Structure formats: structure tokens, C-alpha cells
Automatic annotation (TrEMBL):
It comes from the Bacteria. Its EC number is 4.2.3.1. GO terms for molecular function: threonine synthase activity. The keyword Lyase applies. The lineage of its organism: Bacteria, Bacillati, Actinomycetota, Actinomycetes, Actinomycetales. It comes from Schaalia naturae. This is Threonine synthase.
């Protein structure tokens, strides 16, 4: 198992502490999984690590880290709509999938201090798993981050530093400090071990339903869930577990949509945007660092980027709450985007929508 640079192809052992290649490219993992079969699932393990045969897991360090993340139910909302209840996680967010895998890697290579930038959910997840593993942790968040998320990060014993400015500026500040201070950059965008965790979203759905729904809707800011979903779908397809790729809808806020614009223009890289205020703070990423990779995968698999209408987010949130689903605003944006898509273009078959974060985290 090695890292490979996405720009120059340089190889590096996964024990490196470098956040990225010297040329500036991000790391990918060269760790092809064996063909997926139901027999390869460890049915005695009740966490994402039941799929560890298909993840880049180096040793048993995950046993020190797991909080029982994963195995969230799929429920029906109404005809043709399935919800994957990923806010039923230890830190009330789907980011626990990736954080568990990433911090298991940190334990495996002996990391004792990490830093990360986040809009809240990923930072809270990393803080929780670092607390579980005994790793010192500092999370940098942009101003305007939910006070509930900040309180949760600090409750786990992590330092939470609020950085003036937007989400992209917060990332720039964090990366400078990582370079100056020598901490391990436990970032959910840079480090490919995070995607080894988000792949399990698809493996779970396939195990639970015995199939993949005809449409899979995924929110996209930095693309941590979308990248995991597409790689896992590719794996199932190559393994013969599914016959074809589902239709994939990638949701961006209409107030911050660099990938949506790039897809419309046929561009190979994200179109620079200045994020405008949006309720969907979790996907308000003006400069997605893996944007070129996301767009290439989107072209390969016919992924369509759609907008979450800003004015519809609160109505969608209220509509879900009336059905017993109390989610955060960014999660409600997924449902708002689906409702608009169904109204304008129609959505045949069934559609899987992730409930990514719990509502109490964004009541501010």
C-alpha cells in the first residue's frame, strides 16, 4: 500500500507525515480492494469496519478507535424516496465514517498530534475519534460556525480556534500552521484514508437493500462523500455485484457552486466563486481541493450537478421535521434539491438521499 501523487505520480509510503506531494499534488491510495462479495463482510462486527476487507486498513488499530459508527438504517419517506439516516452516528454526522478510518491510520503510524480545518461536522468527528485514541487535537473553524458544533469539539478535549473569514480562508490558515508547527494534517479532503471510510456508505446500502437504488443523491462541498460513493460504486460494478451505475445527482448550494458551474461549462477544474451566505454551510466550499478529480469522475459516470435552492431549504427542513426527521440545514438542502429536481425534470424509480447531520447541530 502506497500513496501516489495525483499530479506527478510520485510514490510515497503511507507512513509519511507530508500532507501532500512536494509538487503540490494530493495523495491517492494505491490499494486496490479484492472483488466485493457478501462473504467478505465481517458480520460479527457492528461498525463500518465490517467492510475492512475492502478498505485500506493496515492493522487492528481500528479496534482502539471505533465508536460503533455506521450501520445506519435506510427508511422510506414517501413513494420513491429513501433516506439513509447517517445522523444516527456517534457525533451525529456522516463524517464519522471517514474520521474513524483516518484516525485509525493515525494510530497505526504513531501520530500524537493533529490539526484540521472544518465547517464543524468533520472537525467534531476528528475531535471525538482523537479523544478515543488519545491523540492531541486542534480544530480550526470559520466564523459563523454553529456554536453547538464548537461546543461539541471542545467537549471532546480538542482546542477549537475560530478563524475570521470564510471556509476557504480557514483552510489556508490551518495549512500554514500545519507547515509551521509540524502537526499531522488530519484533513478530510487531503488525506485519502478518509475516503476509505466514506466508501462504506455504499457497501451498507447494498447489504441492507440487496441492491443500489436507481438514483443516488449526494451533497458536494469538498466532495468527501461523493468520492467515497463513486469509488465504492465502481468497486461493486467491477466486482459484478451490480450490473450498472445508478444515476448520481450531486448537490451544490446555489450560493456556492464551483463544480456546478464547471460542469455546465465543460471545464476540467472548478470555476472560482466567492461564496455568498448560505444556510447550507456544510457545502459552502468555494475552492474544492479535489475538484478536478471530482469533475473527472463525474464525466466518467454521467454525474449531474444540481442546485439546492436557497429559498427552499427551510421549507424542506420543516417538511422533513413534520415526518419525524429533524436534520441540519445542509442536510435539508439535499431534500430541497431533490424536490426541485422532481418538480422540473422528474425522478424515476427510487432515490436515496443522505441525512447527513442532526438538526440540533445547526439551530443557531
Amino acid at each position: 500500500m502506497e500513496y501516489v501523487c495525483t499530479w506527478c505520480g510520485e510514490r510515497s509510503p503511507v507512513t509519511t507525515r507530508r500532507a501532500r506531494c512536494e509538487c503540490g499534488g494530493l495523495w491517492e491510495l494505491d490499494a486496490p480492494p479484492p472483488p466485493f462479495t457478501p462473504e467478505g463482510v465481517d458480520r460479527g462486527e457492528w461498525s463500518i469496519f465490517r467492510y475492512r476487507r475492502y478498505m485500506a486498513i493496515e492493522d487492528d488499530s481500528w479496534r482502539r478507535v471505533t465508536l460503533g459508527e455506521g450501520m445506519t438504517p435506510v427508511i422510506g419517506l414517501d413513494e420513491g424516496v429513501l433516506l439513509k439516516m447517517d445522523y444516527y452516528m456517534p457525533t451525529l454526522s456522516f463524517k464519522d465514517r471517514g474520521a474513524a478510518a483516518l484516525i485509525a491510520h493515525c494510530v497505526s503510524i504513531g501520530v500524537d498530534r493533529v490539526m484540521q480545518d472544518s465547517s464543524g461536522n468533520a472537525g467534531n468527528s476528528v475531535a471525538a475519534y482523537c479523544a478515543r485514541a488519545g491523540i492531541r487535537c486542534e480544530i480550526l473553524v470559520p466564523e459563523g460556525t454553529s456554536p453547538h458544533k464548537i461546543a461539541m469539539i471542545r467537549a471532546h478535549g480538542a482546542v477549537c480556534t475560530v478563524v475570521p473569514g470564510d471556509r476557504d480562508h480557514c483552510a489556508d490558515v490551518c495549512r500554514r500552521r500545519v507547515e509551521d508547527e509540524g502537526a499531522f494534517y488530519a484533513n478530510h479532503v487531503y488525506n485519502p484514508f478518509f475516503y476509505e471510510g466514506t466508501k462504506t456508505y455504499v457497501y451498507e446500502v447494498f447489504e441492507q437493500l440487496g441492491r443500489i437504488p436507481s438514483t443516488v443523491l449526494v451533497p458536494v462541498g469538498n466532495g468527501t462523500l461523493l468520492l467515497g460513493v463513486l469509488r465504492a460504486l465502481e468497486h461493486l460494478l467491477a466486482s459484478g455485484a451490480i450490473d450498472s451505475m445508478p444515476r448520481v445527482l450531486a448537490v451544490q448550494s446555489e450560493n456556492c457552486d464551483p463544480l456546478w458551474r464547471a460542469a455546465r461549462q465543460g471545464a476540467e477544474a472548478p470555476v472560482p466563486v466567492a461564496p455568498a451566505p448560505t444556510l447550507a454551510e456544510g457545502i459552502a466550499i468555494g475552492r474544492p481541493m479535489r475538484g478536478t478529480e471530482i469533475l473527472a469522475l463525474a464525466r466518467r459516470h454521467g454525474v449531474r450537478f444540481i442546485h439546492a435552492p436557497e429559498g427552499d431549504i427551510l421549507r424542506a427542513r420543516a417538511r422533513l421535521a413534520e415526518r419525524g426527521i429533524y436534520c441540519e440545514h445542509t442536510t435539508a438542502a439535499n431534500y430541497a434539491a431533490f424536490l426541485r429536481e422532481r418538480e422540473v425534470h422528474g425522478v424515476g424509480g427510487d432515490c436515496l438521499i443522505p441525512m447527513c447531520g442532526a438538526g440540533l447541530k445547526s439551530d443557531h
